[in-house]
Design a protein that fits this description.
This protein has three helices and no strands. The protein is mainly alpha-helical and 90 residues long. The chain has a domain at 3-64: Ribosomal protein S17 (Diphtheria Toxin Repressor, domain 2, Orthogonal Bundle), CATH 1.10.60. Helix 1 (3-19) packs across helix 3 and helix 2 crosses helix 3. The N and C termini lie far apart (65 Å).
């Protein structure tokens, strides 16, 4: 796939996600159906690439959000264990 094509898919996908914020999800088939409703994409391959990019992008965002939440929870666990160790030592 040529580099220009990737940029086009990214640009179109970003515009669609901004315009229809919250309507796309992490299910490729649902995103393809929504894409049929909100945009006219004549090429089946391009439509699949756009839906795939949107799906992958949203899954990546979800993973990053979960990772950040788990990192926020970890310091509390570490401090609680430290408190337990201090109580055992005293």
């Amino acid at each position: 796939m040529p580099i220009g094509n990737v940029n086009r898919v990214r640009r179109i996908s970003t515009e669609l996600m901004a315009t229809y914020k919250g309507e796309f999800g992490i299910d490729f088939k649902q995103n393809k159906k929504l894409l049929n409703e909100v945009a006219i994409v004549r090429s089946k391959g391009l439509k699949n690439e756009i839906a795939g990019y949107i799906t992958t992008h949203l899954k990546r965002e979800l993973e990053e959000q979960k990772e950040k939440e788990s990192l926020v929870d970890q310091p509390e666990t570490i401090s609680q264990t430290g408190e337990m160790e201090e109580q055992l030592i005293s």
